[in-house]
UniProtKB/TrEMBL annotation, chains A, B:
Name assigned to this protein: Zn-dependent hydrolase
Ranges where the Peptidase M20 dimerisation domain occurs: 209-309
MF annotations from Gene Ontology: hydrolase activity, acting on carbon-nitrogen (but not peptide) bonds, in linear amidines; metal ion binding
Cofactor(s) required for function per UniProt: Zn(2+); Mn(2+)
Binding site for Zn(2+) 1: H81, D92, H188
Record has RNA-binding as a keyword: no
One protein family per Pfam: Peptidase_M20
Lineage start: Bacteria, Pseudomonadati, Pseudomonadota, Alphaproteobacteria, Hyphomicrobiales
Length: 410, 410
């Protein structure tokens, strides 16, 4: 039986991805932080592409784009994000947006498909200004006060100033229209090596792990690095280093099989070569899809801080700054992705949780949501060497489009 | 026998110090980094004060001031620095400059004194742009290329740009006139608690410890903090923390009785909460007045780095970025300070090494040099709470002026 279903155009997908890579190019990746010039250009690029897919849309008051269709029938929301981590890869985000655009181009014009795909680009998934600000705004969880307080983590620029520079000050924010969508689907690179090492083409995501984030601070006594004897020092930096090593020693006995934890940033105060640091701070993160494991590890963290403070000479304090509940992916959407993978990738798929956070976890709070992964070469991401083989990108696009068709035609 | 010697005016010294504190005030201290607006104002203040002491001088091409006298006879160079560490104390530097100014005002006009005191303010003793750039320039150790390459350690601003903004671009740099001076004397706060805990008024400095500085870097593999399993991570930040703890464990057995070591700054690359650091760097410093001890500790440091690299998963590298030989203070100048202390402080002095680096160690490479310390309350410095009792400031000024008189009249 000849294949009569609408299919993705692989060359067009690769061309679009390379067009986005040309905005803010850094080595073989991109440097495209939220509200940077190349990010603005990427958003404009998408707005200009929407009519090709029968969609209309503009950038809203928080930097989101949601392209809507006037075609009757069910609507499926699809998308990802366009900004990048600093000096990072070209596919983390844009892959999902371009797949979404391709699905809309292919399916919305096809009369055998019921309804339409609507394309979203969620702003600041990478957290330059906050935590999933774009998708959280769309689902109604972001207040004006949160935007007032948000600052760029890299340079301290106020989000209000950035929005104003983007010409977005005063624009309304688009929020969900309850009942409009049958679900949300997002494609993304895996950012790990499960697919590559298993020679697989597709990951059917079952859940997205929760991310709990902590600020751990150490208070000692700032003093002169030449005149203060070792015996009387209260070196907050050394206290921090000891705490990091203690985490490394004690967490393995308390964690779950898939738990990961990371100290991503360390700051000594004042951070000068000739001054004993009087303060030190680390940003610490735990990820797991089991809240009970997180609760156990957080308790351990607080116990360790209390022990360190009691022992001295510095005090340690653990502050939770972000709680992210794990999100379960919708079973019907998983089945649609699986069926498409069986047909178009010879069954080279696996069901797997996502260790990374994604906008889909925010959408999952208000509608059925699902995700598919394509392989990452060497498992590398959040780095400019991040890449996926062209053949895998094309296969992923075909499966994504077919899964969307299956969901709409159910 | 009535005291007929010229004496310092304590009230004038305190008034001058408070006038300098009013430029760049931060809490009870100052924030006066090199080439900041309050630093420029402080340099202008000194230039305007020089004529009161019969001196003429201007800011030179690196931000130094050397006020010269046309009085015949021997010349004694005295001074310190006017900029501060970031958000630090009011006396670290200005005390020595104001004492120097006071000595010139009192002694240069007095016909019982042979020759004259000449006042210097050395730029950037606190190392915002380099290492003792001002005093090293004066003794002939700073090349134009070093200035070309120098950047503000806090904000990355090029030194050339800062000099240009100060109106100093193209000005010649003053360098030593060989044979002009019989010696150099500098007063400073102790920055430790030896004098306070011994209820002493004056420290007669015998030597200035050497400072050896190292950049220790760790190379791992940058990756995603959610998708990369703990077992396969190469976390450069964790490698750094382990190294800090190992230093804390192994240095005490290899150090000397007065050795101190400090990790003043830690930087993780890229330093984002959701990225496993692929690189990490620490600025590490060792101080001692015995080069053999330093050599032993540096060897240990390199051994530890080799062990860490061999063990994996990250590599460690030790790079020496600054070598500061210890400087011995001149015996005759020590005797002059001691004699003044006996006469004016009832013998409440002690001979002691300086754990901190000072411009005097640079001047000591070309002429006899000496230093005196006054007490620091609580031993605190490099912090805005740094302070010295008014009575101790006045006593110190009197002894400094008298020591200068004794040196000139030898």
């Amino acid at each position: 039986m000849p294949d009569t279903h609408p299919r993705a155009n692989g060359e067009r997908v690769l061309a679009d991805l390379n067009a986005l890579r040309a905005l803010g190019t850094y080595k073989s990746g991109v440097h495209k932080p939220t509200f940077s010039e190349p990010h603005r250009q990427s958003l404009d690029w998408l707005v200009q592409k929407l009519p090709e897919a029968g969609l209309a849309g503009a950038i809203d008051g928080i930097g989101n784009i949601v392209g809507t269709s006037s075609k009757p029938g069910p609507k499926l929301l699809v998308g990802s994000h366009l900004e990048s981590q600093n000096y990072a890869g070209w596919l983390d985000g844009p892959l999902g947006v371009v797949y979404a655009l391709e699905a809309a181009r292919v399916l919305n014009a096809d009369h055998s498909v019921k309804g339409a795909v609507e394309v979203a680009a969620w702003c600041d998934e990478e957290g330059h200004f906050g935590s999933f600000l774009g998708s959280r705004s769309y689902v109604g969880q972001v207040t004006e006060a949160e935007i007032d307080a948000a600052r760029d983590r890299t340079n301290g620029r106020a989000m209000r100033d950035a929005l104003s520079d983007m010409g977005l000050a005063g624009r309304p924010r688009i929020t969900v229209e309850p009942g409009r969508h049958v679900g949300y689907v997002e494609a993304h690179i895996e950012q790990g090596d499960t697919l590559e090492s298993g020679k697989l083409a597709i990951g059917v995501v079952t859940s997205i792990v929760g991310i709990w984030q902590y600020r751990i601070t150490f208070i000692g006594e700032q003093n002169h690095a030449g005149t203060t004897r070792m015996a009387v020092r209260k070196d907050a930096g050394l206290a921090l280093a000891k705490f990091c090593v203690a985490i490394d020693e004690r967490f393995p006995a308390a964690c779950g099989p898939r738990t990961v934890w990371t100290t991503g940033r360390i700051t000594l105060d004042p951070g000068a070569p000739s001054i004993i640091p009087g303060g030190a701070e680390m940003l610490f993160q735990i990820r797991d899809d089991n809240p009970a494991v997180i609760a156990r590890l957080e308790e351990l963290l607080r116990t360790m801080a209390a022990e360190a403070s009691a022992k001295g000479p510095c005090t340690a304090n653990v502050e939770k700054i972000r709680t992210g509940a794990p999100a379960m992916m919708n079973a019907d959407i998983q089945d649609a992705i699986e069926a498409a993978s069986k047909e178009l990738a010879g069954g080279r798929f696996i069901r797997m949780p996502s260790g990374a956070g994604h906008d889909a976890q925010m959408l999952a709070t208000i509608m059925p949501a699902g995700m598919l992964f394509v392989p990452s070469i060497g498992g590398i991401s959040h780095h400019w060497t991040e890449n996926t083989a062209d053949a895998d990108i094309v296969t992923g696009a075909q499966i994504f489009v077919d899964a969307c068709r299956r969901i709409l035609n159910r």
